[in-house]
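An instance noted here:
***
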Amino acid sequence: MSSDQTFFTLLEFVEDELGFATSHYNESYLDRRVSSRMRRTESDTYEAYLELLEDDAEEQTALLDSLSINVTGFFRNPDVWEGIRDVLRELSETRESIHVWSAACADGREPYSLSMLAHDDPEIDESAIHITATDISEPALETAREGVYTESRTVDLSDQLAFLEEYERYVDHDDRTFTVREEVGQNISFERHDLINDDPKSGFDLVICRNLFIYIDNEYKQSMLETIARSLQPSGYLVIGKAETIPPALKTAFAVTEGRLRIYQLEDTATQTAASLE
């Protein structure tokens, strides 16, 4: 981690002038992302990079995109997706309309995976599934809305999609480019939302927010999870990353459904939930 005062001045500029809450993130994570942009712009010092950043709107956009968490994949951690399948099946049995929030959705592969799973499983009514997919990064959301993904040397999209035996029903494949079919995206709406600064949403039966909290300082995790909890219906489900945990102050608000898979269920009554979040 950096001890250079200019680094912290740079973070203050990003927070105050660009509106990205750097104070909520781990310093080591921020330093890695800033250093990556410094190498790309051939800036030798934090001071030189800050001068560039102050005057270059395109670099401001590039840094904000770099700071947002965009690590994702189709059906990432297949065992978790088996657990999500079970949740969607249960909700299909008990609710006529199912509202899902894919929070911090990055480039959209998670919400598309949700929709493909719903279309593929005969026990899930895909017409009842309504997915709201959000992210803080506008460039990531632009990619998500297009639904076009290209393989690289290190990413095998066929392997990711192989969670579904007949995934070709849901994507068009041309050489190394995969395009999500229109019917898969019809029940998904993409919009910008900042889990740190924006208000809670409401009425969700399932919220999926995976692998974001590992980058967030501990003191801010609780408030972000409170935002998610307030967005859930009573008895709604929450899925977080396998390396993440519910803070102790919120453990009475959530019952463990599948501990190994980090799938939780909001306690049944609004009174219990409100008391847990005070």
Observations:
- The longest helix spans residues 78-94.
- Residues 229 and 266 are 7 Å apart (CA to CA).
- The longest strand covers residues 232-240.
- The radius of gyration is 20 Å.
